[in-house]
Structure formats: structure tokens, C-alpha cells
């Protein structure tokens, strides 16, 4: 007969006693242990009835994780998103003496592609000469609202409901 650790043996004993198996047969060498376990088992509350078994579709839904985009799908979605926003953007002419300004905008979407809250310019320019570029970026976001999200990406809303996009004038010029 295999030997078990005390907690496992105790649980097995309670289960066996509940099933009507005599504890004496489990530990014939040590009667005091089986008497002690029998007393504890009789004082233990009755086991709870088994939970209702869910229907097959409910059980399958509980087991399946929500669908997620593959890395290739994510890259494809991000490329589509950038292309779409850049098509709506008419960059302001950059000042001759200023550094390149690449605006970063944080977006929050509804499942239909519309913005769920106003876009946020994450890195507003400190140089006043670049303010027209920042303004043109925010205007592009408004002009593209709502986005016509392709059907292949709609089931993955949880992955694209918030996004950040960079508006690089060098990429837009291509």
C-alpha cells in the first residue's frame, strides 16, 4: 500500500469514511490514529453538493481565451492606422530654423472606430514656431474621425481600443 503525507492521507480518510470505507483497513498498525481521524471525520461538516454543470457552450466560452491578433496582424493594423491618419494630415510647413518635430498622439477608440474621448498630444512642442505643426496633427485626427476599421480587425477591439501614433513629416512627405 502506498504511503501518503499526513494532509493527503487525512483528506483521503475523510473521503473514504464518507464513502463508508472502514478506517481500520487503512492503518491497521496504528489504531489510535484511525480512531482520532474517525472522530475528526464525524465532526467535519458534510461536503457541499457539486456545483451545477454548465451547458456545453457556456463551458466552452469559459475555457476559450479571447481572440488575440498575431504579431503580423498587429503590425498590419498599425501600418493601416498610420497610413490612414497620414492620408488625413496636411502638415504645416516646418520652420527653417527648427528641429524636426514628430508629434505623438494618444487615441482612445470606440468599437465602431470613432474616438471615445478627445485625442491627446503627448509631446506638445516647446518651440512656438512648431505649434502650427501640432495643430495640423490634431486637425488630421479630427478629419479622420471615425476611422473605417477594416472588418478583419474589428474582433480584436480590446487590442486597438487605445493606440499612440507618431506623425512624422518626413514619412508623410513620401
Count of alpha and pi helical runs: 7
Please state the second-level CATH architecture of the largest domain. 2-Layer Sandwich
Mean residue pLDDT: 76
* Class by alpha and beta content: mainly alpha
Q: Poorly predicted ranges (pLDDT <50, ≥5 residues)?
A: 7-28
Question: How is the main sheet built?
Answer: 3 strands, antiparallel
Short description:
The chain is mainly alpha-helical. Helix content is 42%, strand content 8%. The N and C termini lie far apart (78 Å).
What key phrases describe this protein's structure?
174 residues, mainly alpha, Fusion Protein Consisting Of Minor Coat Protein, Glycine Rich Linker, Tola, And A His Tag, Chain: A, Domain 2, three-stranded antiparallel beta sheet, 8% strand, elongated
How are the elements arranged and paired?
Layout lengths: L5 H13 L12 H13 L12 H8 L7 H18 L14 E6 L11 E2 L9 H13 L13 H4 L1 E6 L1 H4 L2
Antiparallel strand pairs: 1-2, 1-3
Helix pairs in contact: 1-2
Amino acid at each position: 500500500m502506498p504511503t501518503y503525507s499526513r494532509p493527503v492521507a487525512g483528506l483521503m480518510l475523510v473521503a473514504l469514511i464518507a464513502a463508508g470505507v472502514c478506517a481500520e483497513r487503512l492503518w491497521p498498525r496504528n489504531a489510535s490514529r484511525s480512531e482520532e481521524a474517525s472522530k475528526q471525520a464525524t465532526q467535519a461538516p458534510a461536503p457541499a453538493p457539486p456545483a451545477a454543470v454548465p451547458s456545453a457552450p457556456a463551458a466552452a466560452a469559459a475555457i476559450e481565451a479571447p481572440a488575440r491578433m498575431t504579431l503580423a496582424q498587429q503590425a498590419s493594423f498599425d501600418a493601416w492606422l498610420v497610413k490612414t491618419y497620414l492620408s488625413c494630415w496636411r502638415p504645416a510647413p516646418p520652420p527653417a530654423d527648427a528641429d524636426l518635430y514628430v508629434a505623438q498622439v494618444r487615441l482612445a477608440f470606440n468599437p465602431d472606430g470613432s474616438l471615445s474621448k478627445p485625442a491627446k498630444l503627448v509631446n506638445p512642442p516647446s518651440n512656438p514656431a512648431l505649434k502650427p505643426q501640432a495643430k495640423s496633427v490634431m486637425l488630421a485626427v479630427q478629419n479622420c474621425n471615425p476611422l473605417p476599421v477594416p472588418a478583419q480587425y474589428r474582433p480584436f477591439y480590446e487590442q486597438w481600443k487605445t493606440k499612440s501614433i507618431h506623425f512624422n513629416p518626413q514619412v508623410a512627405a513620401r
